[in-house]
Amino acid sequence: MTAALAALQPPLRAISRSTAETEVWAELRAEAEAALIEEPLYAGIIQATILDQRSLAQALAYRLAHRLGDGDLARLSMRDLCLSAFEADPEAGAHAVRDLVAIRERDPTCRRYLDPFLFYKGFAALEAYRVGHWLWHQGRATLALHVQSRISEVFGCDIHPAARIGSGVFIDHATGVVIGETTVVADDVSILQSVTLGGNGKESGDRHPKIARGVLLSVGAKVLGNVRVGEGAKIGAAAVVLSDVPAHTTVAGVPARVVSRLRPDEEPAQSMDQSFGFGDGI
Asked: Is 165 helix (H, G, I), strand (E, B) or coil?
């Protein structure tokens, strides 16, 4: 974990961390086997993507390559690239597991791991970003930017490979999400569609937001500049945040202002409750 990411979060909580990779992989395979019977027309894809693979990392590399491979970088090359990243990063498997578990815990439409693994753009974009992030730190900026470009083209989600994103992160829908180069996102954050974590002008250097653990970024929220959003805060839908947000508060409006206080034990990223609190109106 980088120093910048560690500074945004206290010691890790137990939530979702007791779920081992072997447990998720076993359940994912069981769901895949059941889906073969449920939908024979899709059986070939399920078999090749999951049941023919020997590990979660291999299956994820295969799926990402199937979706991101193109004329510039064929699927086989993309698969090898993804697998190299996952095998080189000892935290990659744990991140993918926590991201999958986060979706299942927070998305009421998700009833099994199979669905986000095969179909959810947010999960695919996040795990593909992790490949690009590894490439970036290997000094392979050209390939990292290619992966970023393909994520944007295929999933409608633009994440710079230099951004630092923790685990247990839920990117819901993904469409229109933009995360800038020097952004830091801690663990257990939920990000909804059309969220921007961007700069505020043409300044250089460290110029993007720092999002602490457990934050909920509601639909269309914009956090601009090198500002800090404190632990367990809630950013209201369509809010424009231009200054620091205190921990355990709800902010809303343009520009965003504190509209309610949250209890320290509330977890907006877990509940996914986008209400503002007192004064929500009709």
From this structure: strand
Other C-beta atoms lying within 10 Å of the C-beta of residue 143: 18
Tell me the C-alpha to C-alpha distance, in Å, between residue 144 and each of 62, 93, 141, 218, 264.
18, 19, 5, 28, 38
Work out the angle between the directed axes of helices 92-106 and 21-38 (0-180°, nearest 10). 60
- Reported as type and span, the H/E element at residue 217 is strand 216-217
pTM: 0.91
Which positions ≥6 away from 107 have C-beta within 8 Å? 116, 170, 172, 272
pLDDT band (50, 70, 90) for residue 13: very low
The rounded Cα 183 to chain-centroid distance in angstroms is 13
Alpha helices in 69-140 (DSSP H): 75-88, 92-106, 114-119, 121-137
Tell me how crowded residue 61 is: count the other CB atoms within 10 A of its CB: 24
- What element of type H or E holds 38? helix 21-38
pLDDT tens per residue across span 244-265:
999 999 999 999 999 999 999 9
pLDDT computed for residue 11 by the predictor: 41
> What span, in angstroms and rounded, lies between the C-alpha atoms of 223 and 236?
11
Q: 10 Å Cβ neighbour count for 26?
A: 12
Q: How confident is the model at residue 90 (pLDDT cuts 50, 70, 90)?
A: confident
Query: Mapping DSSP to helix (H, G, I), strand (E, B) and coil, where does residue 179 land?
Result: strand
Q: What is the largest CA-CA distance in the chain?
A: 55
